[in-house]
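Repro:
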Amino acid sequence: MKARYILKYLIFLLLMVSVGILYSFSNARNKRMNINEIHVRFQSNEHPFLSKNMVNKLLIQNDSSVQNQAKSVIDLYRLEEQVLKNPYIEKASLYIGIDGTINALIKQRTPIARVITSDKTYYLDSKGARIPLSERYSARVPLITGIDRGEDVKKVIGLLQKMTTDDFLKREIIGIHFNNSKECLFTVRSGNYKIVFGALKEMDQKFRKLKAFYNKAFLDITIQQYKTINIKYHNQVVGEK
């Protein structure tokens, strides 16, 4: 009985040693394996600021491409940080497959407005990040003029977030201008009139008034007679013909 127990113990010990050796061999071989390919995948193709080849060029380590380098020397964290420095990229996830392939999942920034100032032009995303213009893609988003300072940009983000979540506002408002008094005026798709929005406060109430006015004005076809539609006053809409 005792001999059988010892035999089982020896067999178990032998199996554990064998597994350890196989694991060490496999691990060493895996580390020596070179990166043979790079796969880039975008979460969405709606805003193609970047191409897969452009992302490949971002994957540089030690002044050379990671392709054909050993897996053991690849620093994925540093590569992710490097990729995220690109202003068009919001998120990046990199991992190495067991076949020696680097897989990169890229989420590009989504522009919600285009800001035009006296000396530069750029896109804004929903978080207020500035996105450079691209030769590959021109986004159809509202144009914003009359703001230059960083604090002005921060204030307009709340307005843009409301507009991008409302199908009607997103379709209708094509331009946003801030005058010298920092009052907001909209250029619209449906006509040559301007909408005077005023200060960026009570925005939900103002948009409800605008939609109610539109419902009536479009119904009786009088909206094209207006020069401006002023919704900045409390509980009223003032139309100037």
